[in-house]
Design a protein that fits this description.
Length: 145
C-alpha cells in the first residue's frame, strides 16, 4: 500500500522532471524487478520487496498513463473519456485479480509471476513505440509540438 499510494506524492514531480514516457518505463522496469524478487525465494525480504516494487511500478504506470490520457481529448470530452478509462481499468483489474487467483490455485506461484511477463513485454513495446512516434513527430520538418 505504501509503494502503491505513497509514491503518488512524488510521481507527478518525476513526470515533470523526466517525462511521462520515462516514468512509465521506470514503472515497467520496477515490475520486472518485482517478478525477479518474487521468484527469487520465499524469505521475508522477498515478501517485503516484491509488493513494494509492485506498488511503485503500478503507480508509475498508472499515473503516467493517466497523464498521457489528458493529452488525448478535448475539454468537452473530459468527463466521458475519464469515466470510460476508469471503467476499463477497474473491469480489467477485477478480471485479472480473479484470473490470478485461479492461476495461482491451478498452477502455482511461479505461473502467476511468469504469466505477467507477456503483458509487461507488450507494455514495453507500446511505450517504446509511442516514444519513437513522439520523437519522430518533433523532428519532422514543418511540424511543431
Amino acid at each position: 500500500m505504501i509503494g502503491m499510494y505513497g509514491s503518488s506524492f512524488f510521481t507527478g514531480s518525476l513526470i515533470s522532471r523526466f517525462g511521462v514516457m520515462n516514468v512509465i518505463l521506470a514503472g515497467i522496469v520496477l515490475l520486472f524487478v518485482c517478478i525477479v524478487s518474487a521468484l527469487a525465494g520465499t524469505g521475508l525480504f522477498n515478501f517485503w520487496a516484491a509488493p513494494f516494487l509492485l506498488g511503485i511500478g503500478w503507480n508509475f504506470m498508472y499515473v503516467g498513463g493517466s497523464a498521457l490520457l489528458t493529452e488525448c481529448y478535448a475539454p468537452a470530452e473530459r468527463a466521458k473519456t475519464q469515466a470510460a478509462n476508469d471503467f476499463l481499468i477497474f473491469v480489467t483489474m477485477a478480471i485479472s485479480s480473479m484470473s490470478s487467483g485461479v492461476l495461482l490455485n491451478k498452477s502455482g506461484w511461479h505461473a502467476v509471476n511468469y504469466g505477467s511477463i507477456p503483458f509487461l513485454v507488450i507494455a514495453t513495446a507500446a511505450t517504446l513505440w509511442l516514444m519513437w512516434r513522439r520523437r519522430g513527430s518533433r523532428t519532422a520538418p514543418g511540424i511543431s509540438r
